[in-house]
Amino acid sequence: MSKADNMLSILWMLRSGKKMTAQQIADELEIHVRTVYRCIDSLCASGAPIIADSGPNGGFRILGPFAESPLMFDADEQKALVHASIFAKETGYPFTDALERAIGKLKLYTNEEQLHQIERHSSGIAVLQPPVHDGLRLLLQTLENAAAQGQTLKMTYSKGREGASVVRGFDPYGIIHWKGHWYAAGFCRLRQEIRNFRVDRILGLETTDLVFERPVDFSARDVLLGNLLPDPGSTEPLVDVVIQAHEHVLNELSQHWLFGHTLVSRHDGEAHFRLDTSSLTSYVPYFLLPYGKALTILEPASLVLKLSEITTSLALHYERMLTGMTKKEG
């Protein structure tokens, strides 16, 4: 570390209320004891009221109100930072190592009571998320750095079918975490349009000498939602969907990204949505299926018919499965 970094580290260590010898400080920061003395001399010259107590229980400490002044972060701010780091780490945040170092410094430069409170709060929250492998973190780091520097990437992307992949130039404008997955939003030089790509389907990224300027008003969040939600300017007909259910079921539906954006009205255990035809015949039936008898579809009949077809097909599938198992057992 530079002298300035050492001086700041020593200052925070002493501000925590601890009395420390020069050797203890040197061991903590992994620097020479003479460096500690030089840094303390510089701090004193800058006005920091550092006192040196001699004797068997001696050491350096800070005098008066300077030691009692509040830390850079109060207790709630420290708690919030630790909680945020837990969420970020579990979602696959690409700079986890740096985040852990930052939290480590936060803990290092606190007194025993503050550290105890931080540990208690950090153990009281957990995030359930599929494990993120190092390869994904590396891709996210490359994408984020390229987005910040305006550097075009050569991207090899899997189209989801075995053996099918496409190489394209990609200007990453930003990365988004949504529903357990990371997406990269930006300009696809192959298709000549702004697109979203699942990061876990990226097979490789290479930097290029090409550069780009990200649009000033670009929002990766808006682009992702815009591709998922019905296009307001589309001529595709909209269909009224009326669902009757317990309030907690309607709450879940209303919080969903698709249903929440298409809610027309809601009252007395009944919700009215207006959905596009393509969603109604493809995505919506499979989303509603797990609710089973917990909801009643009042309209349209086409949605009820689609659910009936799906459940009949599933019943036949499991009947065949059961027949095959019975034959094997026989």
UniProtKB/TrEMBL annotation:
<feature type="domain" description="Helix-turn-helix type 11">
    <location>
        <begin position="8"/>
        <end position="59"/>
    </location>
</feature>
<dbReference type="InterPro" id="IPR036388">
    <property type="entry name" value="WH-like_DNA-bd_sf"/>
</dbReference>
<dbReference type="Pfam" id="PF13280">
    <property type="entry name" value="WYL"/>
</dbReference>
<dbReference type="InterPro" id="IPR013196">
    <property type="entry name" value="HTH_11"/>
</dbReference>
<feature type="domain" description="WYL">
    <location>
        <begin position="140"/>
        <end position="206"/>
    </location>
</feature>
<dbReference type="InterPro" id="IPR026881">
    <property type="entry name" value="WYL_dom"/>
</dbReference>
<dbReference type="Pfam" id="PF08279">
    <property type="entry name" value="HTH_11"/>
</dbReference>
<dbReference type="InterPro" id="IPR051534">
    <property type="entry name" value="CBASS_pafABC_assoc_protein"/>
</dbReference>
<protein>
    <submittedName>
        <fullName>YafY family transcriptional regulator</fullName>
    </submittedName>
</protein>
<dbReference type="InterPro" id="IPR036390">
    <property type="entry name" value="WH_DNA-bd_sf"/>
</dbReference>
